[in-house]
Amino acid sequence: MDYNELIAFTENLDRSSFLEAGYKQYAQIDEPLPIGFGQTISQPSLVAQMTWLLRPDKSSRVLEIGTGSGYQTAILAEFSGQVYTVERIRELSDRARDVLDSMGYANIHYKVGDGSDGWSENAPYDRIMVTAAASEIPEELIDQLSPGGRMLIPVGPRDVQELVMLSKDSSGEVYREAVENVRFVELIGKYGWG
Ligand code: SAH
């Protein structure tokens, strides 16, 4: 994945398509915004930074937990092979799918349900991106990561979390590294906040 291509793509991606009518006028501002149902879309600079840290390539199979508006999904779909995205709120998943279909992405697979235990049917994944905050890293997600794979996940309580990068080497050994503090909505489900 090329950094300049990523930045050019995110700069040209119209965030207003992913926002509700009342918020479209704020699309250009680099701030998180509400997307309905108490959920938020992250600021574009963080989405770009997280995508760069995840470093997918055109052969990657990527699992995303928390489709939300589909904004992060679009960027993953542009730079990955296949994207498997899970969202627990059906209305958000359907809305994201409409936008992403209209953009022409045919490499995105959608699931409505609890993604805190991943999406085992299509595992393993080369990359996993979690865009909701977990209390700890779900063991199922680690299991569904390929050797040589990488996962980004915000870990911690409601007010502030540590963005954790977990990598798995070719022998299956797991390494964990804290990137920075972030603030995401909660991961709700079996391995989330309940
Ligand atoms: N990446 C999104 C932002 C998502 S906000 C974007 O670019 O717009 C986090 C999303 O995670 C919310 O839509 C929330 O409903 C979803 N979520 C929370 N817990 C979940 C779970 N257990 N499984 C799937 N989705 C979940």
Helix and strand content put the structural class at alpha/beta
Which word captures the global form? Answer: globular
CATH homologous superfamily heading = Vaccinia Virus protein VP39
Number of helices: 5
Report the CATH topology name. Answer: Rossmann fold
The major beta sheet can be summarized as: 7 strands, mixed
Number of strands: 9
Determine Rg (CA atoms, Å).
Answer: 15 Å
GO molecular function: protein-L-isoaspartate (D-aspartate) O-methyltransferase activity
InterPro entries: PCMT, SAM-dependent_MTases_sf
Keywords: Cytoplasm, Methyltransferase, S-adenosyl-L-methionine, Transferase
Function: Catalyzes the methyl esterification of L-isoaspartyl residues in peptides and proteins that result from spontaneous decomposition of normal L-aspartyl and L-asparaginyl residues. It plays a role in the repair and/or degradation of damaged proteins.
Task: Characterise the protein shown here.
One of its GO terms (molecular function) is protein-L-isoaspartate (D-aspartate) O-methyltransferase activity. It catalyses: [protein]-L-isoaspartate + S-adenosyl-L-methionine = [protein]-L-isoaspartate alpha-methyl ester + S-adenosyl-L-homocysteine. Its main location: cytoplasm. The protein has 194 residues and is of the alpha/beta class. The protein has one domain: Vaccinia Virus protein VP39 (Rossmann fold, 3-Layer(aba) Sandwich). The chain contains five helices and nine strands, in the order H-E-E-H-E-H-E-H-E-E-H-E-E-E. The strands form two sheets. A seven-stranded mixed sheet has the order 5-4-3-6-7-8-9. Helix 4 links the parallel strand 4 and strand 5. The longest helix has 13 residues. The model has no long low-confidence stretch (mean pLDDT 96). It binds S-adenosyl-L-homocysteine (SAH). The site of S-adenosyl-L-homocysteine has 26 residues, from strand 2, helix 3 and strand 4.
